[in-house]
Amino acid sequence: MPDPRSRRPDPVARETVASHVSRMAALNWIDAATFAIDKGTSFQRIIDRHPEAFDAMAALGITLPYDLLTWSPVKAGGTQRMLVGHAFPAKVILEPQIRGCPVCLRADAAGSTARPYIAMALRGHWMVPHVTLCLDHRHPLAPLWRDPKPVSRFDSVARFREIADEILAGRLDQETRDPTDFDLWLDARLTGLSQGGWLDGQPLHAVATFCHLLGTALLRLEQILPAWVGRNDRWALYQMGFEVASPGEEAIGDALRRLQKLADGPQDGPKKIFPLLYDRLSHDYRDDPTFEAFRRILRDHMAQTWPLGPGDDLLGEPVTERRLHSVRTAAQATGIDQRRMRRMLAAAGIVPEASDGTCDAWEIFDAAAAQPILDNLTALMPAKAFAEFIGASRSQFDLLVRDGVLMPALDAPDVKAVWNPVEGRVFLDSLLSGAVPLTKVPRGWEHLSKSAQRLKIGPGAIITAIRKGRITGVGKLEGCEGYAAVHVDHADVTRVLGAESPTAQSIEIFAKTVGLLPPSRLKLLINAGATPATRLQNPKTRAFQLYITAEDAAAFHRRYLTPRTLAQEFGRSWQSLTAEMRAKGIQPFSPQGEDFGPLYLRADVVAALS
């Protein structure tokens, strides 16, 4: 057999080791998996760049160029993979979709004497999802194939065999485009070059992802919805974000402020004002240290420009203390008309007399410094206005008053305006401080008042448990204000406040136990006063219903026998016992002709059978 070392493909710049081994296997007339086994390893280990795989091949005289290993991802602990010195999540760099430049692949075929599907090679930088363009040919990377299984996905020769004709015929070609600044910067970072900019000091994957997220948010400045941008146009989002972010943090902050001016106010919510950007940084990348610089920029920006208070969310962390007020939130906290509030604050020198175009919702000031003035401006309110102020219906308000949760500031029967809006805000803050933001009501969650209604308890019990930290499943529903936004995990409430199961059997269970079915017969017996039952509270529904306690059961058994209890007591089959009783004239218990089923008076049975 000829020496396999003589049948080796020419390396291609930036080729992956899996691609090279697949082509080498094809030149030796076998598939990649069989070739790897023949060399004392496995193709999966080659894909993973496991050192033992290459040691085994080297022992047989097969060494691979270092460049192949450089442009192939390798495990770097946990779920991370390293490619040319940059870390990527495995699910990002090893996604099932394989992309490539069809012009590069045609050039591979033209420059080789091997069959086209053997000459075509996969490049390592094509695996980076942020790479969308081949700089050599200005051709977008085109989808080649998709396969969830790594061994067959990276056996490139087998896959190119299926599509080589399409590539050669140009059927995968797309419209070319000029490279953007982001395209050039990304390729420079992958090849180890640095332009010395601020972004060069940040992890590559985090930078590229942030540019895409920022570009998506910036679409609002062009009045374009993210849904309108197709996958083939993602390169434009990268460029939009890169163009803004590359100068540094100050430029990013300026862009965030421009986006805020498009909103009516903070009440629109950060997810609407910073589409995708806020959601990803506050949840998906919340614990990823490589995104910390970008989280800090957005967090500092919001902390300095947003009037956040208890119940609000700041990048996944609940706000527990108000540091900034706006004219709008100050008006809400005091119950004063917003226009009047601005005039009063302007007179006190807290906000400008004339707005510079900044709406009241964004006109912010130090909350602690202004609190004494706000306290003096606060006016008491009548009950109807106070209920609306805290976001409660009148019936919900009445229940809160009945439970002592809310109390009037004045005890004056002839005065309607006795409710202090400051106390209303304190009440809401006590519920919403630490509440998780909810975009919709999760399964099993209820509004606080509804949860109380289901358990047949007052809302005060739930509120007390929340304040004591016994109930932690509390959320603030997006799009609702005040008390209307407060939702709770009903299972959590039931765990803390639900009654213990009574030490008794339900009517249904006891009827099955003694064999008196259907249970409606036992209910008739109880209703007729012929056997006792005890009214207890159902732990789930909180409703009172009849149960059979141990004493009730003993009373039943002292007076009655059923075929099942007959058999248990006399040690014979119920069929023989009931037949004997019929022969001796013993009839089921049926006063006034009522049908209680196969139920017998114990005294009659014992007299007949003894």
Automatic annotation (TrEMBL):
Q: Which InterPro entries match?
A: TniQ
Name of a matching Pfam family: TniQ
**Sequence ranges assigned to domain TniQ in this UniProt record:** 7-141
**Protein name according to UniProt:** TniQ domain-containing protein
Species of origin: Cereibacter sphaeroides (Rhodobacter sphaeroides)
